Amino acid sequence: MKKLLNKPEDFVRESLEGVALAHSDTVKAHFEPNFLYRADAPVSSKVAIISGGGSGHEPMHIGFVGKGMLDAACPGEVFTSPTPDQILEAAKLVHRGKGVLSIVKNYSGDVMNFQMAGELLSSEEFRFINVLIDDDVGVKGGLSTQGRRGVGTTVFAEKICGAAAEDGYSLDDLVTLCRRVNLSGRSMGVALSSCTVPASGVPTFELGDSEMEVGIGIHGEQGRERMPMMNADSITELLSLSITEDPAYKRSLPEWDEGTCTWIDRKVTSQPFKPGDRVLAFVNGMGGTPLAELYVVYRKLFEICREKGLEIVRSLVGNYITSLEMQGCFITLLKTDDELTRLWDLPVKTPSLRWGI
Amino acid sequence: MVTKEQIIKWLKLAANVMQENKEWLTQLDAAVGDGEHGINMARGFQKVSSHLPSVADEDIGSILKSTGAILLSAIGGAGGVIFGTFFIEAGKVTSGRQELGSVDIAAFLKAGLSGVIKRGGAQVGDKTMVDALAPAVTAFDRSLEDGADTTEALGQAVAAAQVGMTETTHLVAKKGRASYLGERSIGHQDPGATSLYLILKALYDAV
Ligand SMILES: Nc1ncnc2c1ncn2[C@@H]1O[C@H](COP(=O)(O)OP(=O)(O)OP(=O)(O)O)[C@@H](O)[C@H]1O
Ligand SMILES: [Mg+2]
After folding, report:
1. Among the ranges given (A67-76, A280-289, B126-135, B170-179), the one the predictor scored with the smallest mean pLDDT
2. How far is A263 from chain B (nearest CA, A)?
3. Of B147, B197, B142, B148, which is closest to residue B169 (Cα–Cα)?
4. Which of A13, A83, A106 to mutate to test the interface with B (most CBs of B within 10 A)?
5. Integer angstrom CA distances of residue A298 from A151, A236, A283
6. In DSSP terms, which residues pair with A318 in a beta bridge?
7. A to B CB pairs, distance under 8 Å
8. Chain B neighbours among A 166-205 (CB < 8 Å)?
9. Does the distance separating the beta carbons of A116 and B180 come in below 8 Å?
10. Vertex A135, ends B129 and A154: CA angle to 5°?
11. Which of A2, A29, A47, B127 gives A20 a disulfide partner, CB atoms 3.0 to 4.6 angstroms apart?
12. Domains of chain A listed by start with CATH number
């Protein structure tokens, strides 16, 4: 293992210190418990938005803290969900009485830790609502298991809801919006190489030179299947078709119930994409793939969308949800409308997404 | 009787055992999950161990509850919530106690199990730590009914946990990260079940 590393156990903390120093005009770091928050928090007259997840996916989530996106982000250890005390303290620091929307990716650890935070916060005088993102079509048998994981749609949800909060949306409206964004997005990824968790020192899995793992998770969880390596166009086609051909996805998705402070399963459906849909398109690098390759993927994705009658109205290409040094990419498509596109376009000023300001 | 000193010895022992088995647990997790279970468990129990001197004057219930709270904030992930919940629930039914009889141990194992099931929703057969814990609880109760003393019953519980742990190899994961693998999770032992076995084994070794 070769990494820019001091002691593995100091990795998360030192990285957090670095972000805060590099972007001191935008964010501040809090330690024990660890979280990053807007330098101007608490911001009055708006709902606060927080998120969190394992470290190793930077810039998600810490790179998305700032005006127009997140008020705070709670980084766990590498690939490990954050703990209830982090979420609790972050929520308390950034809220200003209008409530807190918490955006949670659907992994068992995250679901349980955010639930405990919600329970602990129930005695506070402000409202706290968790919303799940579950957009990864790479998960097979989603109905009998933990369900689909949260990946690329998370970035859309954080940007769009962040803008809406800034725009004056109430907590209830933000919850509805966030759930709608989740039901509108789908993602699918491929790994060309493994990744190495710093504290472990060895690659999480082995992948031969001529193999790729299709439907990979962002923590190196194995995917749908291992296949022989293909060229960029064929890989892009494989990923995009998994998304565009995915039928209506009906499932019981846990929804946060404020009264009982727990998740309650609700039947929800993500409708399939259809010709005429306008979409936001996202090609995400996993950390070890050059941007030039991601553009090769985007070029083919653009062609496929045109053939399918999907109009790409905005795009995002780059490393936004990484898996340490893994090579590979994720494609995310999100069905959009005037409201979502307008919110996507509104100004944002975070360490890693910045426009209009 | 299990004394408070033995409970403290157990937790110290568990910290050592987690440290010794860190790589193994992490390898098990790399096969079916995300390759961090051993690292996280070792870090969590290390923190518990270093915190023990400050709670040594408290009762067993408080010690177990603070152990759970530390695990909850130091392990992270599903493992943190699950193992933290186990100790917090065990602590609730032993509060105020300076020593535990066999019936108390039975109660604390049972409370830990039902807390974990309530929190994580896993049933026996879902390929989680419940597959090691549930048979251990049953075996402990049965041995007591058969007239065994605490130590013998714990021995039986550890043996049952070991069998449960080994048998997770043949199961398809339905909870946690390993569930994404579906059928591909067959052939791999569950890391959480392995940790639970090691923790119970440490309890047996401490008494
Ligand atoms: N719902 C559950 N109920 C009981 N045990 C569970 C549950 N989910 C996971 N586990 C146990 O936790 C172990 C995994 O712990 P680990 O610390 O690696 O968490 P993780 O799933 O990687 O968490 P995260 O997704 O937050 O990183 C599994 O081997 C399993 O025994
Ligand atoms: Mg794990």
Report:
1. B170-179
2. 11
3. B197
4. A83
5. 18, 8, 6
6. A284
7. 115
8. 197, 199-200, 202, 204-205
9. no
10. 95
11. A29
12. 11-184+251-267+345-355 (3.40.50.10440), 187-245+274-338 (3.30.1180.20)
In the DSSP assignment, the letter for residue A253 is: E
What are A45-103's pLDDT values in tens digits? Answer: 899 999 999 999 999 999 999 999 999 999 999 999 999 999 999 999 999 999 999 99
Q: Which residues of A are catalytic?
A: 57, 219
Contact between B178 and B189 (Cβ < 8 Å):
no
How far, in Å, are A77, A86, A232, B118, B172 from residue A49 at the CA level?
21, 14, 37, 28, 37
CA of B187 to the centre of ligand 2 (A): 17
Which whole number is the average pLDDT over A240-257?
A: 96
CA distance A27 to A20: 6
Please give the residue of chain A at the shortest CA–CA distance from B72. A83
Residue type, B172: V
Alpha helix (H) ranges present in B33-76?
Answer: 37-55, 60-74
Determine which helix (DSSP H) or strand (DSSP E) holds B100, and give its type and residue range.
Answer: strand B99-100
Position of tokens 């890391």? B191
Secondary structure of residue B45 in the 3-state scheme = helix
The neighbourhood of ligand 2, an ion, using CB within 5 A, equals B 29, 33-34, 37
Ligand 1 pocket, B78 CB below 6 A? yes
Specify the residue with its C-alpha closest to ligand 1, atom 7.
B176
Determine which residue's CA is closest to atom 8 belonging to ligand 1: B176
Contacts of A240 (CB under 8 A, 6+ apart): A188, A300, A301, A304, A305, A331, A333
Position A141 scores a pLDDT of 67
pTM of the model: 0.93
Q: What one-letter code names the amino acid at B99?
A: E
Give the E-state strand segments of chain A in sequence order. 27-30, 35-38, 48-55, 72-78, 100-105, 128-133, 185-191, 211-214, 225-228, 249-257, 262-270, 278-285, 311-318, 328-335, 348-349, 354-355
Helices (DSSP H) in chain B: which residue ranges?
4-20, 22-32, 37-55, 60-74, 77-92, 102-120, 130-145, 150-167, 191-206
Q: State the distance from the centre of ligand 2 to the C-alpha of B189, rounded, in angstroms.
A: 13
Q: Tokens 């609730």 map to which residue? A: B92
Write down the ipTM of this complex. 0.87
CA distance A75 to A36: 8
On chain B, the residues whose CB falls within 8 A of the CB of A112 are: 78, 81-82, 119-120
What are chain B's domains? 2-206 (1.25.40.340)
Checking if the pLDDT of B18 tops 80, the result is yes
Query: Contact B76/A76, CB-based, under 8 Å?
Result: yes
Structure tokens given for A326: 């893994």
A109/B81 Cβ within 8 A? yes
Write down the pLDDT at residue B34: 80
